[in-house]
Design brief:
Layout: H1 2-23, H2 27-43, H3 49-56, E1 66-70, E2 75-80, E3 83-90, E4 96-99, H4 137-148, E5 163-170, E6 173-179, E7 189-190, H5 195-208, H6 233-237, H7 254-260, H8 265-270, H9 286-297, H10 303-315, E8 324-325, E9 339-341, H11 343-354, E10 358-359, E11 362-363, H12 367-373, E12 389-390, E13 404-408, E14 412-417, E15 422-428, H13 438-450
Helix pairs in contact: 2-3, 2-7, 4-13, 5-9
């Protein structure tokens, strides 16, 4: 009897140890992801709570979260079996912020008057283009058939693609677009890691203003006593800094702790050690993008000026009036992950790059910058450039190698194909990207236009 009790107690103890060290830490992912993203779905994108729970949060372990929405205070709280509760707060023009260790009233909130322009009409998009080559009736029909395949499910009862929006710009003209039920041209949709390309674009504008030298070291204070002091902005843009990083989301990793258990996301990433010499190991890192976003904050006199900068200097200049980049609790952009815009506005960013940075006759981005983002980073197997993904390494074997793109979690894409004068946008919730054959889809879109 006594041996049985000891064995039982040992088993319980072992289970508790396993739970505490291996199970409980994963609650960071579940409660943090659920609170932050449900808050953004409801208060930033205007998605119905039930729809967001059934679609945006109903995958893998995230579906274990229990959530509570306070519509008066515009907050969302999530927990797992009542444990590890986390709350996200809607902060107006800076979206939803997950507050972890600080008090909610200590979180940064933009308080100045901010009048966001109304969404511009389709007709005013590219009206400065003198001539537009329209598609023939046959081309248009084939293009719409190709585009529609983004929405067609092999088994409608178990949808895998979950495309919400898709559109094509050809020679600066919107030639095809389609939306899932419940979404339209005014729907803000999440970009996830497409935000990295926005972060890099913001940095390029600071470089144009001579506030940053891409080949200079960052001067980050905590790096000055070790080898990290040699890391340059270019190293960070190419994901070649040598900093330790683990981009894993199905377990407790650097990425998870940063996004779902930190108030100062970029500062968390700067604390990581260097494990290799810069330019010797390419590692895809959301931490790197947030280091850049946090460092850029120090180049401004105050947080409000920092937050307004990308809107005034680029987004509103090219009519991206729906764009919203979310911040962490310290008021720094979550440069790796959190930005929202309509499909049309995401397309405008692609079109700006396709036009080598020129918009309505104004050189908004430096042409050399546009070339830079398309140059492969060392050791990346030609799949990654300056915070943009590349096709030089033939990720998409049946698509031109000059394609480069903004990519995000769940299959968010803005494809830029200079040789075909094309921008293709796809937004949705493909939980397993292998379930969407982007190579075949792009191939068929190109064929439709050419034939």
């Amino acid at each position: 009897m006594k041996k049985g009790l000891i064995s039982f107690a040992t088993l319980i103890g072992l289970l508790l140890v396993i739970f505490y060290f291996f199970v409980y830490p994963r609650f960071i992912i579940i409660s943090g992801y659920a609170a932050k993203n449900l808050c953004s779905c409801i208060f930033v994108a205007g998605i119905d709570e039930e729809k967001a729970l059934n679609e945006d949060l109903n995958f893998n372990i995230i579906s274990l979260a229990t959530t509570a929405v306070n519509y008066d205070k515009k907050t969302v709280t999530a927990s797992v079996f009542g444990l590890n509760s986390k709350t996200a707060y809607f902060q107006g023009p800076t979206g939803c912020t997950l507050v972890n260790k600080i008090k909610p009233d200590q979180a940064y909130e933009y308080t100045k008057s901010w009048e966001i322009p109304k969404y511009d009409s389709l007709e005013s998009w590219f009206s400065y283009i003198d001539t537009v080559e329209y598609l023939s009736g046959n081309q248009a029909n084939n293009l719409y058939s190709a585009l529609a395949k983004a929405f067609i499910e092999d088994n409608p009862s178990v949808p895998l693609k979950n495309t919400r929006a898709a559109l094509v710009l050809y020679k600066g003209q919107l030639v095809a677009e389609q939306y899932a039920i419940g979404f339209d041209k005014s729907s803000r949709l999440m970009g996830w890691s497409m935000s990295k390309s926005l972060t890099a674009t913001m940095l390029s504008l600071l470089a144009q203003d001579k506030k940053v030298d891409l080949d200079a070291t960052t001067g980050i204070q905590g790096w000055q006593t070790d080898e990290r002091k040699n890391i340059t902005y270019r190293h960070l843009l190419h994901m070649n800094s040598g900093l330790r990083w683990e981009e894993v989301y199905d377990g407790v990793s650097d990425a998870v702790v940063m996004l779902f258990d930190s108030d100062a996301i970029g500062e968390y990433a700067t604390q990581l050690p260097q494990t290799s010499v810069p330019d010797t190991h390419w590692v895809y890192s959301s931490g790197t993008s947030n280091i850049l976003a946090s460092k850029m904050h120090s180049l401004f006199d105050d947080t409000d000026s920092y937050i307004r900068y990308p809107y005034e200097i680029i987004f509103y200049k090219i009519g991206m009036y729906s764009m919203l980049m979310e911040t962490d609790a310290r008021g720094h952009f979550v440069g790796s992950s959190y930005s929202w815009a309509t499909a049309r506005d995401w397309a405008k960013m692609g079109q700006l790059y396709l036009q080598e940075g020129n918009w309505a006759g104004e050189q908004v981005l430096d042409k050399e910058w546009v070339k830079f983002v398309q140059q492969p980073a060392l050791n990346s197997d030609d799949i990654y450039g300056g915070h943009f993904w590349l096709n030089k390494g033939k990720r998409f074997p049946d698509v031109p190698t000059d394609l480069y793109s903004m990519d995000g979690f769940h299959g968010q894409k803005v494809f830029i194909i200079p040789s075909k004068d094309l921008v293709v946008v796809r937004l949705g919730l493909t939980y397993n990207e292998a379930d969407f054959d982007f190579n075949l889809w792009l191939k068929e879109i190109i064929l439709a236009i050419e034939n």
